[in-house]
Design brief:
The chain is α+β, with helices and mostly antiparallel strands. The chain folds into 4 domains: 10-49 and 75-275, Sandwich (Immunoglobulin-like); 284-387, Roll (PH-domain like); 461-524, no CATH class; 550-598, OB fold (Dihydrolipoamide Acetyltransferase, E2P) (Beta Barrel). The chain has helices at 2-27, 31-67, 95-98, 172-178, 186-200, 274-277, 314-319, 367-387, 413-418, 433-449, 589-598; strands at 80-90, 108-116, 119-122, 126-128, 134-137, 141-146, 152-160, 226-233, 243-246, 248-249, 264-273, 281-288, 296-304, 307-311, 325-328, 334-337, 348-351, 359-363, 461-465, 481-486, 496-499, 502-504, 516-518, 522-524, 541-543, 546-548, 551-560, 563-570, 579-582. The strands form 7 sheets. A 7-stranded antiparallel sheet has the order 15-14-13-12-18-17-16. Strands 2, 3, 4, 7, 8 and 10 form a 6-stranded antiparallel sheet that branches. Strands 1, 5, 6, 9 and 11 form a 5-stranded antiparallel sheet that branches. α1 (2-27) packs antiparallel against α2 (31-67) and α1 (2-27) packs across α5 (186-200). The longest helix has 37 residues, at 31-67. The radius of gyration is 39 Å and the shape is extended.
């Protein structure tokens, strides 16, 4: 009766949460608040139906136990952990909607409800429109104490996310609903909860069952979530990897909450049986390694996973060193008890097909211990047989990250309803003036005392300057480049430090670059056989006070307006510095004659 009372207490707690969700939904003033409240209400209904199903199962087992149909000595397979993560549902939009971005923008709020037995997990809300190709849920759901016959039901719920201005103005009916009393008996609460949850159609895990889309409550305003698709995952679907499963669609295209689902769901479903994680039994055994031999050896043995590990001493077992003998235990292993021997008593014979050694014989110091080992071995083989491919190796389960703390936002439902405070209970704002003053003081002290340069003294360095050659026409903007190396340092006063973050460099005037730089633009110069020192660009020639640059050759020509422009390859500069120059800016006419002689077209 203690288990039944605990389930009844959980039902009453869920009923109170359901009533609170009704009131919150009626008081919502924003769309996001209403969607979260409606989702909480649907989740509470699913919890209530799951607990009622568990209560019915407990009472049925009590009746069978009283009638003698089932004894308490029935051995069940071990439990384990099941994890569902990386949930992704592909969408299939029409070409006009997705690629051409035409048609009405259909926007829905969706979430997944994951149920395994009485454990229910709900994912975060995701807003979906035609800009998405997949519905992705980053949640990781872990279900503990799950048997090998588990059925994990995945339900996708959707609600049309249209703005409704009527949510923010509660009418008289809403005000009367908010002022309702919670003083009801537990029986009325549970009966009301069952009727409301049943109207949702949530929690039925029968194969092929389609959840009806009925209203949550006649007097409940706000958005309604409807079942869009569902599927049921079993132990046959467990794989250590990302797999695709079929979805059963429950909505038609004319529904306002409909989304163009592809009909599949991709996820990672893994399981960890307890028989693969924890040792089943350990102790000293006498082991006969060869079937036709009478040579018995004493080992300290432990049954773990798919092997019976035999160590020479207890210390080696505790340190998990390499075992001397490994007896394989598989789901097809046969464990039987032979007749009693005058010297060693009863024997346990372990036979595993398709193994090098035919069989192993073990025994213990007394009959009781031997029977305990025999019972544990048979139960362990039965566990491996029930969990099937989950026992081939230990699958990795990623633990979910800690949930973010609920931050109170201005205008949120929590801020408006749950935490009203009186004027004398206003939150205390900490005085930050002392901290600000201390920070400013430390900043000024550091600035006055710190005049060192971030590079070592007299070390060559590169300067990060804007790309392109100033004073020349360029057909496209170039990326910033490193110019250098520049030899100098603080010792020979080639660098002037104005502040801890800015310096002035002795650059040539022909570069047409301002000599003041932030220290982040100055990098230490490194040189090796794979990174030789670059050649510094040659300076410009001054002709009548105007800078002019040497041209290596002309590469191309194009008609630009009323004249020709030529693509020039500058002497001493790389190909990234090439630019188009009008013909009248080329001082050496022989370059133009040579170009047209080589390219008469």
């Amino acid at each position: 009766m203690a288990q039944e009372d605990m389930v009844l207490q959980q039902i009453e707690r869920e009923v109170r949460m359901q009533e609170g969700a009704y009131k919150l939904l009626a008081a919502c003033s924003h769309r996001d608040q209403a969607l979260e409240a409606s989702k909480s209400l649907l989740t509470c209904n699913a919890h209530i139906l799951a607990l009622l199903s568990q209560l019915q199962k407990i009472r049925k087992e009590q009746i069978l136990k009283q009638e003698g149909s089932r004894t308490s000595e029935d051995v069940l397979p071990c439990t384990g952990r099941v994890s569902l993560s990386d949930l992704r549902i592909p969408l299939m939009w029409k070409d006009s909607e997705y690629f051409k971005n035409k048609g009405e923008l259909h926007r829905c709020a969706v979430f997944c409800l994951l149920q395994c037995g009485t454990d229910i997990y709900d994912t975060d809300l995701v807003m979906v429109d035609r800009t998405l190709t997949d519905i992705c849920f980053e949640d990781k759901a872990i279900f503990n104490k799950v048997g090998p016959e588990f059925q994990l039901r995945v339900e996708l719920y959707s609600s049309c996310a249209k703005e409704d201005s009527s949510w923010g103005v509660p009418g008289p009916r809403r005000i009367s609903f908010l002022g309702g009393s919670l003083g009801r008996t537990s029986g009325k609460k549970i009966r009301f909860a069952v009727e409301s949850a049943a109207s949702c159609g949530v929690g039925d895990v029968r194969p092929g069952h389609v959840t009806p889309s009925l209203p949550l409550h006649l007097s409940t305003p706000g958005p309604k979530f409807n079942l869009l698709a569902h599927t049921t995952l079993r132990i046959e679907h467990v794989r250590d990897g990302f797999k695709t499963h079929d979805l059963t669609l429950s909505a038609t295209e004319d529904s306002p909450f409909w989304l163009p689902l592809f009909g599949n769901v991709c996820c990672r479903l893994v399981a960890q049986p307890q028989c693969m994680l924890q040792p089943a039994i350990s102790g000293q055994l006498q082991v006969k390694l060869e079937e036709d031999s009478d040579d018995w050896k004493r080992f300290n043995c432990i049954l773990r996973g798919q092997a019976l590990l035999c160590y020479q001493s207890r210390e080696e077992l505790e340190t998990e060193d390499k075992p001397l003998v490994v007896i394989p235990i598989r789901k097809d292993t046969r464990v039987c008890v032979s007749e009693a021997d005058l010297l060693y008593g009863q024997h346990i014979v372990i036979k595993t097909p398709l193994q090098g050694n035919g069989s192993y014989t073990i025994t213990s110091c007394n009959i009781e211990n031997t029977q305990r080992w025999n019972k544990t071995l048979q139960q362990h083989v039965d566990n491996l047989r029930h969990w099937k491919q989950c026992c081939e190796h230990v699958m990795k389960i990623e633990m979910p990250s800690s949930k973010k703390s609920n931050r109170v936002k201005q205008g949120s439902l929590y801020h408006e309803i749950v935490t009203p405070y009186s004027p004398r209970e206003r939150p205390v704002v900490p005085d930050l003036s002392d901290e600000i003053r201390s920070l400013l003081s430390s900043y000024h002290k550091e600035r006055s005392a710190r005049l060192e340069f971030p590079l070592p003294l007299s070390q060559p360095f590169n300067v990060n300057t804007p790309g392109g050659k100033p004073g020349r026409p360029s057909w496209r903007p170039l990326q910033p480049t490193l110019k250098g190396p520049i030899d100098g340092g603080l010792n020979n006063l080639l660098i002037r430090v104005f502040s801890p973050v800015s310096v002035r460099l002795p650059l040539s005037k022909s570069l047409h670059i301002h000599p003041s730089f932030h220290v982040s633009r100055i990098k230490p110069f490194t040189q090796s056989q794979f990174h030789p020192a670059p050649d510094f660009p040659p300076p410009a020639h001054l002709i009548d006070g105007v800078p002019a640059y040497s041209v290596r050759r002309l590469l191309q020509s194009t008609r630009w307006g009323r004249g020709l422009h030529y693509l020039e390859d500058w002497e001493g500069y790389g190909p990234e510095e090439r630019s188009w120059v009008p013909a009248h800016n080329i001082l050496d006419c022989s370059l133009i004659w040579d170009f047209h002689r080589q390219h008469p077209d």
